[in-house]
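quick one, 385 residues, struct below
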Amino acid sequence: MPTTTRRFARTLKVAVTVVLSTAAFAVPATATPAVSGPSAHDHGRAVFVQNDRVAGNQVIAYRRHDDGSLHERTVYGTGGKGGVLAGSVVDHLASQGSLTYDPHHKLLYAVNAGSNTVTVFSVEGDRLHREQVVTSGGVFPVSVAAHQDRVYVLNGRDGGSIQGYRLKDGKLHPVAAWHRELDLDTATAPEFTHTPGQVAFTPDGSQLVVTTKLGGNSIEVFSLDPSGAPSAEPVVNSKEGSQPFGLTFDAHRRLVVADGAENSVLTFRLREDGDAVLVDDTPTGQQASCWVVRAGDHFYVSNAGSNTLSRFRQNRHAHLEPLGNIPTDAGTVDASVTPDGRYLYVQTGGAGTVDAFRIGRDGALTKIGSTEVPDGVGGEGIVAL
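---
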């Protein structure tokens, strides 16, 4: 794969014919038992939620029953502090992927935005053990991505940056040469709309994708060499007025992005040279459409301003067909789908809850109930197992 040697912008291309035809220390976690009963330790079903508490960030572990309902088990301290971006209300990190699970190593990564650190937990069922708290390599970490033995953290303030790590023996080791400044406009008010949104590996691990929201109006793509080192500069795919926020990938490795300014879902074919070719643009008809998750050929977009989830089905030409909106509690933000695709859990940062939904064979959502998250108003970060 070619390495980009200079930073440059490319206008997003529309392929119409394609659309039509195709702190490095380890301490034990602080745990507060909540509800007794059979533990998910026996069957591995759990949901983890981060509350981004400023006085001390926490991850709440819930036992997930066979019917999808949640029962609080334990509150785990991360050993760091949460943070609040200026202007944010329902999502104090204004990002996606602040709580990330690595299934291969059974590790959970949590950002501590107020401490500029990342916590590493080992996972056993619904039980966590704090293994490490390590520097994020920048200011105000908001998102984490993991692939094999490589981990990257996205920092939100001071222009934004990424920091790469090697994973060895369950611990993260920062690689100084894997740090890149993004040089975004993160100082313009309101701050929460201008900090970067998410960092993610492509499915094959050959590229690293960063969404910049209004700080760059762009999707930035770093090529990665065989060692995991990023290119000196990213390819910058820009679109004036856009706010690329949360992202995921479809079954054909196409990039699917929620655009919070245009309130639409954008699908791209990502080329080896880092160029993102737009193949579909479908509006949600809602407000603050910023987070997106996938279950099979269905996609679910969280609309914080409308208190809804928008449901879409992708056809064989990569077009997303709108299938309606489902109401949630106030402030719909980050969401997660269970590995078997049967349940969806979404944080509602206005209400401070997690709303649970059963996913039907046709992708339809049936609400199971809502579960309170301690100090959960404004919190962001959720993983369903």
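DSSP finds one helix and 31 strands in the chain.
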